[in-house]
Automatic annotation (TrEMBL):
Keywords: Lyase
Binding site for pyruvate: 206
Top-rank lineage group of the source organism: Bacteria
UniProt GO molecular function: 4-hydroxy-tetrahydrodipicolinate synthase activity
Listed SUPFAM superfamilies: Aldolase (SSF51569)
PANTHER family from the UniProt entry: DIHYDRODIPICOLINATE SYNTHASE
The species this protein was found in: Maribacter polysiphoniae
Entry similarity comment: Belongs to the DapA family.
Name this polypeptide is given: 4-hydroxy-tetrahydrodipicolinate synthase
InterPro entries with a match to the protein in the record: Aldolase_TIM (IPR013785), DapA-like (IPR002220)
Coiled-coil regions, chain positions: none
SMART domains per record: DHDPS
Active site: 136 (proton donor/acceptor), 164 (schiff-base intermediate with substrate)
Amino acid sequence: MKVQWQGVMPAVTTKFSPDDTLDLKMFRVNIEAQLNAGVHGIILGGTLGEASTLTDEEKRILIQETVKIVAGKVPVIINIAEQSTHDALVAVQRAKEYGANGLMMLPPMRYKATDRETVVYFKTIAKSTDLPIMIYNNPIDYKIEVTLDMLQEMMACDNIEAVKESTRDISNVTRIRNRFGNRVKVLCGVDTLALESMLMGADGWVAGLVCAFPAETVAIYELVKAGRTKEAIAIYRWFLPLLELDISPQLVQNIKLAESSTGIGTEIVRAPRLPLEGTERKRVLGIIGESLKTRPGLPPYKDFTQGT
């Protein structure tokens, strides 16, 4: 399946059982909720997927299970966030064998690579595979910025097709579009800037709170693409207190608690992460509870004819 790099792509959480094994039953419940809402792809093993805690065998199971659940309806993307080029090359090869349709790639982790090291890393991986790649540009959290000049160098690799834009600089959407036109697809990677990014021309949204509120997330995207901006803004204003749970070091705990509250997940995280407790847990539950009380009705967004 060809990846279009547009629409809403949930960065799904990994579901765990109390005994710290994969909870594939609840994982299926959530993926099916995403599909029913009309998402345009599934991204596995990102920050929300607690990728750094997953074994290679667990990644295999998650990819193959997701491919089975989606049954060709949407592409399956796996995040590559390895510590070495060798390990990344192995992970990419396995991802293709397991049935992934595309890759989301972080720069090398744990230390701040130079611009040259980062570009060579991405190009080396891209040349090793025919899977399409979305570069994850998140200098706030991962301390490495993929600049436009670096991205220009990567354009020698035809399968580097998209950028997950998480710089928090809304103008970067326009900068990328001005520099590369439609050669590079742009997906917003920050929930609290998603509507603004799409209004500035972003092609889609790699979303977090979609894990708990899939229909509302897809509705915003479809409304924007249909030119019904006023309706999209109304839902987005209701959504913002929830979306702000995504821009926190405890985003995994926050979003899993929201998933649990909407019945399509649990709040179980893998150590060293711990569930929220005390005042912070009460605060987050208050935000979720108030949002559920005021949850808006949605228009028949699946019926909209999207623009190109």
